[in-house]
Amino acid sequence: MLAAVQAARPNAGALPGPQGTAAERDVAVGVYLRRTYSTGFFLGVPFTIGYITSYIYNYRAERPAGQSVLLALGGVTIAAGAMVVFALEGLICVGMALPIAWVIAWPGAVLGRIMARRASLAPTGAGMALLVPLLIGVEPRAVPPRHEVVTVVEIAAPPDVVWHHVVAFPELPPPTERLFRAGVAAPIRARIDGNGVGAVRYCDFTTGSFVEPITDWDENRLLAFDITSQAPPMSEWSPYRDVHPPHLDGYFRATHGEFRLTPLPGGRTRLEGRTAYVVDMFPQLYWTVPARAIVTAIHTRVLHHIQTLAEEEAHR
Known about the structure:
alpha+beta, 48% helix
């Protein structure tokens, strides 16, 4: 499997040292074979790198605890950088995952130092290197929870004017928000094929299109749709062209969307955008924070565009 991963990536090869070899192997087992960013992957890999680095550093002579921890954190950072160099991951994902890796490598380094000081337990150093791929290989895949983001704007236009800009809208201006400029997919336009329930809406992003079959069509009140196909959520930064790490394929999935229109006094409209999504990556608590920020930024960009179009039409 490792050979297959290396052959599939430009300039791929063995990562330097025991940390790199272990990291590359565990990526192959967890991500490319099991297709999962699991507990074993996100906790086990940095813990093991921290453990092995500190174990080797302290095996022949006892070293200061601070140096052992710093060396372990450096080992994790080098392994993460090697993932980018050998095109296994992109800079954005690695940069977001590093804080977790540093935190988990710390206790690994402490344990590795303790074990190295007990010479009679030397075989555990090699044993730890085998523990993580075993854990990743047998760990059951959990069903990810469903999340929802709701964003609201008030528009100085009646619902019948707002409605047709919700159903489809022309191209937005180029994004200026920092999140989108960093590579996150930005909405460009929306178009629809057909009318009513069963029609198919397409929301075009900078990375491709979301396919959205209409499930509820209550004119001037509610537009609801499932999301049956979606574009990658971002374009990764990498020294190589067209790097496409596995986490861009289905680990963040939007599943359902809605626009709800409520008439307000004075010919105004309350427009509510809803998106349901899942994040199939551990730890959920960590990765749902950037996921929520991305969905909120997309909502804000689309709803403000609809607001501008509707208000311009209403005031002509």
